[in-house]
Amino acid sequence: MNFRYPIFLDVEGKRCLVTGAGPEIAAKIRTLASRGARVTYVNPTAEDAIAALAAEGRIVWHARRFETADLDGCLLVITDHEDNAEIFRLAEERNVPCNAVDDPAHCRFSFGSVVSRDDLTVAISTNGAAPALAVRLRQRLERELGEEYGQFLAMLGELRPEITRSLPDFERRKALWYRMIDSEALDALRQGRPQEAHQLLRRLLEEAKQEAAPDRVKDRAGT
After folding, report:
1. Handedness of CA 169, 173, 174, 175 (dihedral sign)
2. What is the model's pTM?
3. pLDDT in tens, the chain (223 residues)
4. Core-most of 13, 92, 100, 179, by most CB within 10 Å?
5. DSSP letter at 108?
6. With b meaning 16 or more CB within 10 Å and e meaning fewer, what string describes 86-106?
7. d(C-alpha 129, C-alpha 27), whole Å
């Protein structure tokens, strides 16, 4: 077992298979669906939360046992059976990454303990050694990373195209990004002053544009 290579995956519009039952299955289905995955759940029965998602049309539920063809066209599979070995073997043959809940021997990938603030996602893994430590670290980060981080990231994302367009020089862009991130904007958001935060970021961008202006003049003169 070696889950040391971190990755963030785009599952939107991709078929993801979930099969079996267990205390974590509903949460995993709900998370996949919330990220835009086309979730197929295969199991003879479904707990109420899963059945409700199917009734709402957010997932597809096949009330039967797993069949090999269920893996066709899948981006990934999550399984929670008493014995996951056969599903893991079939997934490996088809190059479909498999996660068997609480069964590391039959996993090609693992899930981190996640802190999410809109587009900001922090995932923590202990490589299966002590999941409880990952949970405690997540709880600590949840206290430290408030909702203002999501707001801050949204503001930076709105400015990014203009920054890229206005500052073609990589080093200037890099310096501006750190100025923005190290500014008082985050504190202003934390204190409920979003307009002030936005004005501060805008001012820093305008200052960077002015600093870059002589370079643009030189470039034009040299052509």
Report:
1. positive
2. 0.82
3. 688 899 999 999 999 999 999 999 999 999 999 999 999 999 999 999 999 999 999 999 999 999 999 999 999 999 999 999 999 999 999 999 999 999 999 999 999 899 999 999 999 999 888 889 999 999 999 999 999 999 999 999 999 999 999 999 999 999 999 999 999 999 999 999 999 999 999 999 999 999 998 765 555 555 5
4. 100
5. S
6. ebbebbeeeebbbbbbebeeb
7. 22
At 104, which amino acid appears? P
Long-range Cβ contacts of 4-8 (<8 Å, 24+ apart): 4/125, 4/127, 6/112, 6/123, 6/125, 7/109, 8/121, 8/123
The residue ranges of every structural domain in the chain are 15-111, 112-144, 148-212
Neighbours of 157 (CB within 10 A): 11
Tokens for 46, please give them: 């479904």
Question: CATH number of 15-111: 3.30.70.1060, 3.40.50.2000, 3.10.290.10, 3.40.50.720?
Answer: 3.40.50.720
Residue-wise DSSP of 160-221: HHHHHHH--SHHHHHHHHHHHHTSSHHHHHHTT-HHHHHHHHHHHHHHHHHHHHHHHHHHHH
Separation of alpha carbons 6 and 8, rounded Å? 7
Class of domain 112-144: alpha beta
